[in-house]
Specification:
eight-stranded mixed sheet, two-stranded antiparallel sheet
């Protein structure tokens, strides 16, 4: 049977959306500074355990002509993605000299982690997103970690602490007494480690989609809460879609295993793709439409998701880097067992059971599997997370971070709170980083029953503004209501992201 152009176009759009979702950092390059002054150099670390005993990490320092400005380190997402692809927009350079250091193990690092076994293992995925169905993956992960060992890779050399110390070496190389930090997703983990280990060297930080310790292990119950909240929002514009999503969340059912009666649908692969596509605004609706449609017996979109999985695995990440850094950072056997059990009745099951199926292989190859053992220092830190982010959900807000320093962007997901318009993020940087002394909270706004408790920075200094059902809808998750800070934040004149 001939396939019409319409499904082909849908497949192309799906694949483009997948790459945009998986590699959001690349969007930063669309907003390049006009004729910046760039200085290129490298940081050399001697005496590491990984062969050949040294690693060279290139960096680029962007600045405008004229006198030097405060230095800002930008740390993009990942792992498994180069940091050098991030190019700061011109608006950032009005206030800061911006340094971008490559992450060790990926991109232009002199040591690039490389083993094909991880990707090959992921392509064997079938069954459910659960530990019980990962035997073929576990064998491949063991081969991958053994392969890295044979290459002379020391796992501890790629921990969060090691990456944080690379920043300290860069600060010393640039000969600046203090730096500002801006991170996104995985980059926020490095920022938190650095500012905790070198508190006196960090003047302030803005962390987008903050990934707290343990954050690579996704909690299915929290994902359910995020999607339940999204269903409440969706009801304001599409009651039928909201009802279908609630039905799917309440009782996930079997999905089609064939398209057109003959083409096989790999449910686990389709579900994995749908989960990653749920992270961001520009792919979330496609993900949930395919998921709810499949539960009602519609196979076309679910087949496309299944078919796109292998392309995502081939081109999405440097998987050797992704796996080693995730395991070196968040390998916690008890946590993996817990989320695996939680995932049995959840709509997305447990994607972390797939990604962390190799914990035994990791320890057998000499890796340390233990939870992160430091409590981050959140002083002079502003965290900005998306309301509907399923990978760094607002349900993970750390109790140690004051409510007035935790901003939730209505309607936003994971990458879309920063990357669609990096220039607008300059308002957050200028307002909080350069004027932290003015960022004192106003009087607390009462948390009304049914509110989300999500705050916007007010349009005028000192004028509080609480997001409520009129511009977003009720939420099912009760959170402490953040109060928007005064001063710099209040004067920013809008949001990096506004709901359509």
């Amino acid at each position: 049977m001939a396939i019409s152009m319409n499904p082909i176009k849908r497949a192309a759009a799906l694949f483009t959306g997948l790459l945009g979702m998986a590699l959001p950092d690349g969007l930063g390059a669309a907003s390049q500074p006009a004729q910046p002054v760039t200085t290129r150099g490298s940081v050399v670390i001697e005496g590491i355990a990984t062969r050949p005993g040294r690693i060279e990490l290139p960096y680029v320092l962007y600045r405008k002509p004229g006198p030097a400005r405060p230095t800002l380190f930008f740390l993009g997402g990942g792992p498994g993605v180069s940091n050098l692809k991030n190019v700061p927009p011109a608006a950032w350079l009005d206030d800061f000299d911006v340094a971008v250091l490559e992450y060790r193990g990926v991109g232009k690092s002199s040591i690039v982690l490389n083993s094909p076994h991880f990707g090959r293992g992921l392509r064997t995925l079938r069954g459910r997103l659960a530990l019980a169905d990962t035997a073929p993956l576990q064998a491949a992960y063991r081969a991958g970690f053994d392969d890295l060992r044979r290459q002379g890779v020391a796992f501890d050399d790629f921990s969060i602490d090691a990456l944080a110390e690379d920043l300290e070496r860069l600060r010393q190389a640039l000969d600046v007494p203090q730096v500002y930090l801006v991170g996104h997703s995985f980059g926020t983990r490095i920022a938190l480690a650095y500012q905790t280990r070198h508190r006196d060297r960090v003047a302030g930080s803005v962390l987008f989609a903050m990934n707290t310790p343990g954050g690579f292990v996704w909690n299915p119950e929290q994902t359910q809460q995020v999607l339940t909240r999204y269903a409440d929002h969706l009801a304001h514009r599409d009651g039928e879609a909201a009802a279908a999503l609630r039905e799917t969340l309440a009782q996930p059912a079997a999905r089609p295993d064939r398209f057109l009666g003959v083409l096989p649908v790999n449910d686990a692969k389709a579900l994995f793709v749908a989960y990653f596509m749920s992270f961001n605004t520009w792919t979330r609706d496609s993900s949930l439409r395919a998921l709810t449609g499949a539960q009602r017996g519609e196979a076309a979109r679910w087949f496309l998701f299944s078919a796109s999985y292998d392309w995502f695995i081939r081109f999405g990440f440097n998987w050797a880097d992704f796996f080693l850094k995730a395991y070196a950072t968040d390998c916690d056997e008890a946590a993996i067992q817990r989320v695996d059990a939680e995932g049995q009745g959840a709509v997305f099951q447990s994607p972390s059971s797939v990604l962390f199926a190799g914990t035994g292989a990791y320890t057998a190859a000499g890796g340390r599997c233990a939870p992160t053992d430091f409590t981050p220092d959140y002083r002079n830190t502003l965290a900005i997370n998306g309301e509907f982010d399923t990978t760094t959900p607002i349900e993970r807000k750390p109790a140690e971070l004051p409510a007035e320093r935790y901003i939730v962007i209505p309607g936003a997901g994971h990458a879309d709170i920063l990357y669609p318009d990096l220039g607008s993020a300059a308002r957050w940087l200028r307002g909080f980083l350069l004027h932290p002394d003015r960022a004192a909270p106003p009087a607390t706004t009462a948390h009304k029953a049914g509110d989300c408790g999500v705050a916007k920075p007010p349009a005028e200094p000192g004028a509080g503004q609480q997001w409520d059902a009129d511009n977003g809808g009720a939420c099912s998750t009760s959170l402490p209501p953040p109060s928007p800070p005064r001063g710099g934040l209040a004067a920013l004149g809008g949001m990096p992201h506004e709901r359509d």
